[in-house]
Design goal:
387 residues; alpha/beta; Aspartate Aminotransferase, domain 2; four-stranded antiparallel β-sheet; 14 strands
Protein backbone atom coordinates (compact mmCIF):
# COMPACT_ATOMS: atom_id res chain seq x y z
CA UNK A 1 0.00 0.00 0.00
CA UNK A 2 1.26 3.46 -0.86
CA UNK A 3 1.71 5.67 2.19
CA UNK A 4 -0.22 8.92 1.73
CA UNK A 5 0.40 10.87 4.93
CA UNK A 6 3.57 11.75 6.83
CA UNK A 7 4.63 9.35 9.57
CA UNK A 8 4.95 12.39 11.81
CA UNK A 9 1.15 12.44 12.08
CA UNK A 10 0.95 9.31 14.19
CA UNK A 11 -0.82 10.51 17.33
CA UNK A 12 -3.92 8.86 18.67
CA UNK A 13 -6.78 11.33 18.16
CA UNK A 14 -9.42 9.23 19.88
CA UNK A 15 -11.04 10.97 22.87
CA UNK A 16 -9.74 10.09 26.32
CA UNK A 17 -12.08 9.18 29.21
CA UNK A 18 -11.98 12.72 30.60
CA UNK A 19 -12.98 14.37 27.32
CA UNK A 20 -15.72 11.77 26.83
CA UNK A 21 -17.16 12.45 30.27
CA UNK A 22 -16.85 16.22 29.82
CA UNK A 23 -18.71 16.03 26.51
CA UNK A 24 -21.47 14.02 28.15
CA UNK A 25 -21.75 16.51 31.03
CA UNK A 26 -22.02 19.45 28.66
CA UNK A 27 -24.62 17.74 26.48
CA UNK A 28 -26.66 17.15 29.63
CA UNK A 29 -26.41 20.85 30.52
CA UNK A 30 -24.35 20.37 33.68
CA UNK A 31 -22.85 23.56 35.14
CA UNK A 32 -19.24 22.39 35.18
CA UNK A 33 -16.77 24.45 37.19
CA UNK A 34 -13.79 24.64 34.84
CA UNK A 35 -10.56 24.96 36.84
CA UNK A 36 -8.45 24.45 33.71
CA UNK A 37 -9.23 27.81 32.08
CA UNK A 38 -6.02 29.26 30.64
CA UNK A 39 -7.52 31.60 28.04
CA UNK A 40 -7.17 35.12 29.48
CA UNK A 41 -9.94 36.43 27.22
CA UNK A 42 -12.35 34.14 29.11
CA UNK A 43 -11.03 34.90 32.58
CA UNK A 44 -13.22 37.90 33.39
CA UNK A 45 -10.50 40.51 32.75
CA UNK A 46 -11.32 44.08 31.79
CA UNK A 47 -9.35 44.95 28.67
CA UNK A 48 -8.50 48.53 27.60
CA UNK A 49 -10.68 48.02 24.54
CA UNK A 50 -10.48 51.58 23.22
CA UNK A 51 -6.68 51.61 23.28
CA UNK A 52 -6.40 48.20 21.63
CA UNK A 53 -8.93 48.97 18.92
CA UNK A 54 -7.29 52.32 18.20
CA UNK A 55 -3.91 50.62 17.93
CA UNK A 56 -5.28 48.31 15.25
CA UNK A 57 -6.80 51.16 13.23
CA UNK A 58 -3.52 52.50 11.82
CA UNK A 59 -4.02 53.38 8.09
CA UNK A 60 -0.56 52.00 7.41
CA UNK A 61 -2.04 48.49 7.61
CA UNK A 62 -3.10 49.01 4.00
CA UNK A 63 0.53 48.86 2.92
CA UNK A 64 2.86 45.89 2.97
CA UNK A 65 6.53 46.07 3.84
CA UNK A 66 7.70 42.48 4.41
CA UNK A 67 10.52 42.39 6.94
CA UNK A 68 11.61 38.84 7.89
CA UNK A 69 12.81 39.90 11.34
CA UNK A 70 9.72 42.05 11.87
CA UNK A 71 9.09 45.76 11.48
CA UNK A 72 11.69 47.89 13.23
CA UNK A 73 8.99 49.82 15.12
CA UNK A 74 7.65 46.55 16.53
CA UNK A 75 11.09 45.28 17.50
CA UNK A 76 11.82 48.62 19.17
CA UNK A 77 8.63 48.14 21.20
CA UNK A 78 9.98 44.79 22.40
CA UNK A 79 13.25 46.55 23.28
CA UNK A 80 11.29 49.03 25.41
CA UNK A 81 9.40 46.17 27.06
CA UNK A 82 12.71 44.71 28.26
CA UNK A 83 14.09 48.12 29.19
CA UNK A 84 11.19 48.58 31.62
CA UNK A 85 12.41 45.38 33.26
CA UNK A 86 16.00 46.58 33.46
CA UNK A 87 17.31 44.46 30.58
CA UNK A 88 19.13 45.93 27.58
CA UNK A 89 18.10 44.28 24.31
CA UNK A 90 18.96 45.83 20.94
CA UNK A 91 16.27 45.56 18.22
CA UNK A 92 18.87 43.85 16.04
CA UNK A 93 18.78 40.84 18.41
CA UNK A 94 15.00 40.39 18.09
CA UNK A 95 13.03 38.35 15.56
CA UNK A 96 9.23 38.34 15.58
CA UNK A 97 7.12 35.20 15.21
CA UNK A 98 3.40 34.48 15.21
CA UNK A 99 3.62 32.64 18.52
CA UNK A 100 5.98 30.91 20.93
CA UNK A 101 5.08 27.60 19.27
CA UNK A 102 6.26 29.01 15.96
CA UNK A 103 9.40 30.28 17.69
CA UNK A 104 10.14 26.70 18.77
CA UNK A 105 9.55 25.55 15.21
CA UNK A 106 12.02 28.12 13.84
CA UNK A 107 14.64 27.26 16.45
CA UNK A 108 14.31 23.52 15.87
CA UNK A 109 14.77 24.17 12.15
CA UNK A 110 17.80 26.33 12.88
CA UNK A 111 19.59 24.02 15.28
CA UNK A 112 18.74 20.46 14.26
CA UNK A 113 18.81 17.91 11.49
CA UNK A 114 16.26 15.09 11.36
CA UNK A 115 16.92 12.65 14.17
CA UNK A 116 18.76 15.15 16.35
CA UNK A 117 17.67 15.62 19.96
CA UNK A 118 16.35 18.47 22.09
CA UNK A 119 16.22 18.16 25.88
CA UNK A 120 13.09 19.44 27.63
CA UNK A 121 12.08 19.54 31.31
CA UNK A 122 9.70 17.08 32.95
CA UNK A 123 7.09 17.86 34.22
CA UNK A 124 6.34 20.67 31.82
CA UNK A 125 4.57 21.96 28.73
CA UNK A 126 2.63 19.09 27.12
CA UNK A 127 3.24 20.09 23.48
CA UNK A 128 6.98 19.50 23.19
CA UNK A 129 6.59 16.01 21.72
CA UNK A 130 4.27 17.35 19.03
CA UNK A 131 6.45 20.34 18.21
CA UNK A 132 9.51 18.12 17.99
CA UNK A 133 7.83 15.49 15.83
CA UNK A 134 6.69 18.15 13.37
CA UNK A 135 10.36 18.99 12.81
CA UNK A 136 11.55 15.35 12.86
CA UNK A 137 13.37 16.04 16.13
CA UNK A 138 13.58 13.58 19.01
CA UNK A 139 12.49 15.12 22.30
CA UNK A 140 14.23 13.74 25.38
CA UNK A 141 13.30 14.73 28.91
CA UNK A 142 15.35 15.72 31.93
CA UNK A 143 13.63 15.74 35.34
CA UNK A 144 12.81 18.52 37.73
CA UNK A 145 12.83 17.37 41.36
CA UNK A 146 10.72 18.63 44.25
CA UNK A 147 11.99 18.75 47.85
CA UNK A 148 9.92 21.69 49.05
CA UNK A 149 11.01 23.63 45.97
CA UNK A 150 11.65 22.63 42.37
CA UNK A 151 15.13 22.29 40.92
CA UNK A 152 16.88 20.73 37.92
CA UNK A 153 18.24 17.22 38.41
CA UNK A 154 21.67 17.89 36.92
CA UNK A 155 23.03 14.32 37.08
CA UNK A 156 19.98 13.15 35.13
CA UNK A 157 20.33 16.07 32.70
CA UNK A 158 23.98 15.20 32.12
CA UNK A 159 23.09 11.56 31.51
CA UNK A 160 20.44 12.57 28.96
CA UNK A 161 22.95 14.38 26.73
CA UNK A 162 24.12 12.38 23.72
CA UNK A 163 26.22 13.24 20.64
CA UNK A 164 22.96 14.16 18.88
CA UNK A 165 21.79 16.64 21.54
CA UNK A 166 21.56 20.10 19.99
CA UNK A 167 19.91 22.28 22.66
CA UNK A 168 18.39 22.39 26.14
CA UNK A 169 14.96 23.91 26.73
CA UNK A 170 14.19 25.69 29.99
CA UNK A 171 10.73 27.03 30.77
CA UNK A 172 11.19 30.01 33.06
CA UNK A 173 9.02 29.88 35.10
CA UNK A 174 8.08 26.33 34.34
CA UNK A 175 4.54 25.35 33.41
CA UNK A 176 2.86 24.04 35.56
CA UNK A 177 5.31 23.93 38.48
CA UNK A 178 5.81 27.71 38.55
CA UNK A 179 9.53 27.33 39.29
CA UNK A 180 12.08 29.86 38.01
CA UNK A 181 15.62 29.19 36.87
CA UNK A 182 18.10 30.05 39.65
CA UNK A 183 21.50 31.68 39.23
CA UNK A 184 23.36 28.57 40.39
CA UNK A 185 21.38 26.47 37.91
CA UNK A 186 22.15 28.89 35.10
CA UNK A 187 25.86 28.66 35.90
CA UNK A 188 25.73 24.87 35.74
CA UNK A 189 23.72 24.87 32.51
CA UNK A 190 26.44 26.91 30.82
CA UNK A 191 29.02 24.21 31.54
CA UNK A 192 27.32 21.88 29.05
CA UNK A 193 28.07 24.29 26.19
CA UNK A 194 24.75 23.64 24.44
CA UNK A 195 22.42 26.38 23.14
CA UNK A 196 19.63 27.23 25.59
CA UNK A 197 16.03 27.83 24.51
CA UNK A 198 14.37 29.81 27.29
CA UNK A 199 10.57 29.95 27.22
CA UNK A 200 9.71 33.02 29.32
CA UNK A 201 6.05 33.61 28.55
CA UNK A 202 5.14 33.61 32.28
CA UNK A 203 8.24 35.50 33.45
CA UNK A 204 6.32 38.66 34.38
CA UNK A 205 4.04 36.82 36.80
CA UNK A 206 6.17 36.14 39.86
CA UNK A 207 4.39 36.02 43.22
CA UNK A 208 7.34 37.37 45.19
CA UNK A 209 10.86 38.66 44.51
CA UNK A 210 13.85 36.35 44.77
CA UNK A 211 17.45 37.58 44.33
CA UNK A 212 18.53 34.06 43.31
CA UNK A 213 16.12 34.03 40.38
CA UNK A 214 17.11 34.53 36.73
CA UNK A 215 13.99 36.23 35.35
CA UNK A 216 15.18 36.27 31.73
CA UNK A 217 18.04 35.13 29.54
CA UNK A 218 17.39 37.95 27.08
CA UNK A 219 20.44 39.90 28.26
CA UNK A 220 23.98 39.44 27.01
CA UNK A 221 25.18 35.93 27.84
CA UNK A 222 28.33 33.89 27.53
CA UNK A 223 26.39 31.08 25.86
CA UNK A 224 24.20 31.04 22.77
CA UNK A 225 20.68 31.55 24.10
CA UNK A 226 17.25 32.25 22.67
CA UNK A 227 14.68 33.88 24.96
CA UNK A 228 11.05 33.59 23.85
CA UNK A 229 7.91 35.43 24.86
CA UNK A 230 4.90 37.16 23.33
CA UNK A 231 1.54 38.85 23.62
CA UNK A 232 -0.34 35.69 24.58
CA UNK A 233 0.74 36.02 28.22
CA UNK A 234 2.51 39.42 28.42
CA UNK A 235 -0.65 41.25 27.33
CA UNK A 236 -3.20 38.48 27.82
CA UNK A 237 -3.94 38.59 24.07
CA UNK A 238 -3.35 35.16 22.48
CA UNK A 239 -5.53 36.09 19.51
CA UNK A 240 -3.10 38.82 18.42
CA UNK A 241 -0.62 36.12 17.35
CA UNK A 242 2.69 37.81 17.98
CA UNK A 243 5.71 36.43 19.77
CA UNK A 244 9.43 37.01 19.65
CA UNK A 245 12.86 35.49 19.95
CA UNK A 246 15.79 37.36 21.51
CA UNK A 247 19.15 35.88 20.52
CA UNK A 248 22.18 36.37 22.76
CA UNK A 249 25.71 35.11 23.23
CA UNK A 250 28.45 33.79 20.96
CA UNK A 251 27.19 33.11 17.44
CA UNK A 252 23.92 34.98 17.87
CA UNK A 253 24.46 37.07 14.73
CA UNK A 254 24.89 33.94 12.62
CA UNK A 255 21.87 32.43 14.35
CA UNK A 256 19.77 35.49 13.53
CA UNK A 257 20.82 35.31 9.89
CA UNK A 258 19.59 31.72 9.80
CA UNK A 259 16.36 32.63 11.56
CA UNK A 260 15.84 35.44 9.09
CA UNK A 261 16.06 32.98 6.19
CA UNK A 262 13.50 30.75 7.91
CA UNK A 263 11.15 33.64 8.72
CA UNK A 264 11.43 34.98 5.16
CA UNK A 265 10.03 31.67 3.92
CA UNK A 266 6.83 32.12 5.93
CA UNK A 267 6.40 35.85 6.73
CA UNK A 268 3.69 34.83 9.17
CA UNK A 269 3.40 37.86 11.47
CA UNK A 270 0.66 40.16 10.26
CA UNK A 271 1.29 43.84 9.58
CA UNK A 272 -1.63 45.15 11.71
CA UNK A 273 -0.42 43.54 14.93
CA UNK A 274 3.16 44.66 14.29
CA UNK A 275 2.05 48.25 13.81
CA UNK A 276 -0.15 48.02 16.89
CA UNK A 277 2.53 46.44 19.09
CA UNK A 278 3.96 49.63 20.65
CA UNK A 279 0.53 50.75 21.85
CA UNK A 280 -0.55 47.26 22.90
CA UNK A 281 2.55 46.79 25.04
CA UNK A 282 2.11 50.27 26.49
CA UNK A 283 -1.45 49.33 27.51
CA UNK A 284 -0.56 45.86 28.76
CA UNK A 285 0.22 46.98 32.31
CA UNK A 286 -3.44 47.15 33.27
CA UNK A 287 -4.05 43.62 32.00
CA UNK A 288 -0.92 42.30 33.69
CA UNK A 289 -1.96 43.79 37.02
CA UNK A 290 -5.40 42.19 36.83
CA UNK A 291 -3.83 38.81 36.09
CA UNK A 292 -1.40 39.25 38.99
CA UNK A 293 -4.24 40.13 41.35
CA UNK A 294 -6.45 37.26 40.20
CA UNK A 295 -3.79 34.55 40.26
CA UNK A 296 -2.45 35.76 43.62
CA UNK A 297 -5.92 35.76 45.19
CA UNK A 298 -6.67 32.28 43.87
CA UNK A 299 -3.34 30.94 45.08
CA UNK A 300 -3.82 32.43 48.55
CA UNK A 301 -7.30 30.91 48.72
CA UNK A 302 -5.97 27.49 47.68
CA UNK A 303 -3.17 27.56 50.24
CA UNK A 304 -5.46 28.60 53.09
CA UNK A 305 -8.20 26.13 52.23
CA UNK A 306 -5.86 23.16 51.93
CA UNK A 307 -4.20 23.69 55.32
CA UNK A 308 -5.03 20.71 57.48
CA UNK A 309 -6.63 18.87 54.56
CA UNK A 310 -5.45 15.64 52.89
CA UNK A 311 -4.24 17.82 49.98
CA UNK A 312 -0.99 19.73 49.66
CA UNK A 313 -0.40 22.76 47.46
CA UNK A 314 3.15 22.49 46.15
CA UNK A 315 5.37 25.57 46.40
CA UNK A 316 4.94 27.89 43.43
CA UNK A 317 6.95 30.98 42.51
CA UNK A 318 5.02 32.33 39.56
CA UNK A 319 2.91 31.64 36.49
CA UNK A 320 -0.76 30.83 36.09
CA UNK A 321 -0.99 27.32 37.54
CA UNK A 322 -0.94 25.48 40.84
CA UNK A 323 -0.13 21.85 41.54
CA UNK A 324 -2.20 20.08 44.16
CA UNK A 325 -0.98 16.79 45.60
CA UNK A 326 -3.90 14.57 46.55
CA UNK A 327 -4.11 11.20 48.34
CA UNK A 328 -2.96 8.23 46.31
CA UNK A 329 -6.04 6.18 47.16
CA UNK A 330 -7.05 6.85 43.55
CA UNK A 331 -5.02 7.29 40.40
CA UNK A 332 -4.91 10.76 38.89
CA UNK A 333 -7.25 9.65 36.14
CA UNK A 334 -9.71 8.28 38.69
CA UNK A 335 -9.50 11.50 40.68
CA UNK A 336 -10.25 13.80 37.74
CA UNK A 337 -13.07 11.52 36.55
CA UNK A 338 -14.52 11.31 40.07
CA UNK A 339 -14.40 15.08 40.55
CA UNK A 340 -16.08 15.69 37.21
CA UNK A 341 -18.67 12.93 37.59
CA UNK A 342 -19.61 13.59 41.23
CA UNK A 343 -18.73 17.26 41.80
CA UNK A 344 -18.95 18.84 38.31
CA UNK A 345 -15.38 20.14 38.70
CA UNK A 346 -12.89 19.96 35.84
CA UNK A 347 -9.16 19.77 36.66
CA UNK A 348 -6.16 18.33 34.84
CA UNK A 349 -4.24 15.24 35.93
CA UNK A 350 -0.51 15.49 36.50
CA UNK A 351 0.22 12.95 33.79
CA UNK A 352 -0.90 15.49 31.19
CA UNK A 353 2.36 17.26 32.11
CA UNK A 354 4.43 14.07 32.51
CA UNK A 355 4.61 14.04 36.29
CA UNK A 356 6.61 10.97 37.21
CA UNK A 357 4.56 9.95 40.26
CA UNK A 358 0.95 9.99 41.46
CA UNK A 359 -1.20 11.78 42.42
CA UNK A 360 -1.21 15.42 41.32
CA UNK A 361 -3.90 17.70 40.00
CA UNK A 362 -3.18 20.89 38.04
CA UNK A 363 -5.44 23.91 38.55
CA UNK A 364 -5.42 27.15 36.58
CA UNK A 365 -5.02 30.19 38.82
CA UNK A 366 -6.39 32.30 35.99
CA UNK A 367 -9.87 30.91 36.66
CA UNK A 368 -12.39 33.60 37.67
CA UNK A 369 -12.25 33.74 41.50
CA UNK A 370 -15.88 32.80 42.19
CA UNK A 371 -15.54 29.69 40.02
CA UNK A 372 -12.14 28.87 41.52
CA UNK A 373 -13.34 29.14 45.11
CA UNK A 374 -16.41 27.02 44.46
CA UNK A 375 -14.33 24.43 42.63
CA UNK A 376 -11.73 24.20 45.38
CA UNK A 377 -14.53 23.81 47.92
CA UNK A 378 -15.96 20.89 45.99
CA UNK A 379 -12.53 19.26 45.66
CA UNK A 380 -11.99 19.48 49.40
CA UNK A 381 -15.51 18.23 50.03
CA UNK A 382 -14.59 15.12 48.03
CA UNK A 383 -11.70 14.60 50.45
CA UNK A 384 -13.74 14.81 53.64
CA UNK A 385 -14.30 11.09 53.84
CA UNK A 386 -10.51 10.64 53.94
CA UNK A 387 -9.88 12.61 57.12
Amino acid sequence: MIRVFSSRLKWDSSPNPLSILLGKKRREGAAVLDLTESNPTRAGLQYPAAEIMAALADPCVLGYDPQPRGLLSAREAVTEYYARRGVEVAPSRILLTASTSEAYSYLFKLLTDPGDEILVPRPSYPLFDYLGAMESVDVRQYPLRYDGSWHIDFPALSSAITPRTRAIVVVNPNNPTGSYLKRAEWQRLQTFGLPILSDEVFSDFAFAPDPERVPTLAGSNGLLTFAMSGLSKVAGLPQMKLGWIVASGPGHQTALEGLEWIADTFLSVSTPVQLALPRILAASGAIEQQIRTQTRANLDHLIIQTLGSPCRCLAIEGGWYAVLEVPRIRSEEDWVLHLLAQKDVLVQPGFFYDFEAEAFLVLSLLTPPVTFEQGVGRILDAMKTLT
